[in-house]
Prior knowledge:
The chain has 3 domains: 43-67 and 83-246, P-loop containing nucleotide triphosphate hydrolases (Rossmann fold, 3-Layer(aba) Sandwich); 267-349 and 437-539, P-loop containing nucleotide triphosphate hydrolases (Rossmann fold, 3-Layer(aba) Sandwich), CATH 3.40.50.300; 357-435, no CATH class. Helix content is 31%, strand content 22%. The protein has 16 helices and 22 strands. It has helices at 56-63, 86-91, 109-114, 123-137, 152-164, 182-197, 209-215, 238-246, 311-319, 342-347, 368-376, 387-403, 420-433, 450-465, 477-483, 506-513, and strands at 18-27, 30-40, 45-50, 71-76, 79-81, 94-97, 170-174, 201-205, 218-223, 226-231, 269-278, 288-296, 300-304, 330-332, 335-336, 350-353, 438-442, 469-473, 486-491, 494-495, 499-500, 525-526. The strands form 4 sheets. Strands 13, 16, 17, 18, 19, 20 and 21 form a 7-stranded mixed sheet that branches. A 6-stranded mixed sheet has the order 6-7-8-3-9-10, with helices on both faces. A hairpin with a 2-residue loop joins strand 1 and strand 2. It is globular and about 70 Å long. It starts with 17 loop residues before the first strand and ends in a 13-residue tail after the last strand. The model is unreliable at 257-265, 382-387 and 518-539 (pLDDT under 50).
Amino acid sequence: MAGVTGSAKPTDDPRPLFGAYGIVKRFGTFTANDHIDLEIRAGEIHALLGENGAGKSTLMKILYGLLEPTEGVVTHRGAVVRLRSPEAARRLGIGMVFQHFSLCENLTVAENIALVMERSLRRGVLAERIAALGETYGLKLEPDRPVWSLSAGERQRIEIVRCLLQNPQLVILDEPTSVLTPGEAELLFTVLERLRGEGRALLYISHRLDEVRRLCVRATILRGGRVVGACDPRSETAASLAALMVGAQVRAVAARPAAPRGDERLGQERLRLDRLSLPAPGLHATALSDVTLGIRGGEILGIAGIAGNGQAELFAALSGEISAPEAGAVRIDGTAVGHLGINARRRLGAAFVPEERNGHAAAPGLSLSENVVLTRRATAPLARFGLVRRAAARALATRIVDAFDVRGAGPDPAAGTLSGGNLQKFVVGREIQAEPGILVVDQPTWGVDAAAAARIRQALIDLAARGSAVLVISQDLDELFEIAGSIAVLHAGHLSAAMPRAETTREAVGLLMGGSSGPSIGRDMSVGPSAPAEIAHAP
């Protein structure tokens, strides 16, 4: 295995490679883990399943030395060990691929990887090892690129490569495919199978249950911080696994029937980009070229694409974080906004959910109610923001928490204390609760469980049904085919024509995502009488 040396050897040792017994973790009066037992054996891929807030991430942080348990012990081949730090965990052979990237934005790829490698390892040698592993597994990285310039998918590759270079006995993977394309995920699965075949143990956390059924031979299921069951995922369906996780059957997304072409319910055009071209905003960013789109009230337009093909730049152009060369290149309800910033666009009824929830969509050190205030400041004056207004913000945050089943410690916790999936639910809910006329959302269900994904998708459909124009940027084709009335593809900064969902296939969209040239690339993809899209509907 290139880039990974000293492979773990298969063993007949009957003891678990690692065990966790009676694990309790309390944060004040909140119990995140409640007497959890877990055994992980060499040569297996073991799934840890549970809905958002079930306690999975807390348990993983304990196994990786980021947290110490309030009660209970961790063992390595039967011997009790104390994991005081991630460095201690790595010395024992535990590696972790994080859901939330633990990367330093201003450092390069190689510098981020070097932070967890041997200090004596020379930079040139490390770069060679990064390149060799990337070449072997298709996880290619440019060692000298700064992290801030990378897409979410490229950042995920750093986490995976950094873990593999440490030659782990146990690899903990927390939602490893949430920002990967199908092709990238397939390459990762190949890597995981090879690691398993060498006698390593893998603990796999994912809300993509078909992946769990494909890869894992055992699953431990958490709910409310406790173990509520175990199973062989191969003998379950995705639906039955989801039911075990949430304690009930997950409701299917229900959408109203497609509206006929020309139906007045489609409403007026609310969002338009008109031949928008933007130079790459950074050395490693993607330029946008002649992008044209239009969305009417009542419609959901899905934009598919592989990470790094201009999604971040398109979102920034839509939100006002990057100005357009011409004011008329971006219009909200007919008003030219290309030179206006995000607050001005919010005042016109637009709302935005960026891909990165920590730091971009939410300030992790502020409470949920304070995060609500940050996004309402554009539409409500804050000069007299006193106790009454603070109470109103807390009440609004509570409504979001209740409507989207956001789970956290306390009535108004800091955003950074929420699990990734719960923070995603809060951010999406915060924007939808504002009843925007236009909603632009990037990766709406990244890292959320099946029930939460259904809740978010239903909320997007319902928002469109109330007359909003919804634009969804997503790498998840299943998601787009479930909720979007039409789908376009962004590749290398070029946007294809919109294709009615009922008139295309996943294979056709996948070809465009991979750069297959066709007559639709670069055409006007306006939605309406000239190029109609249907109201979002279930397949």
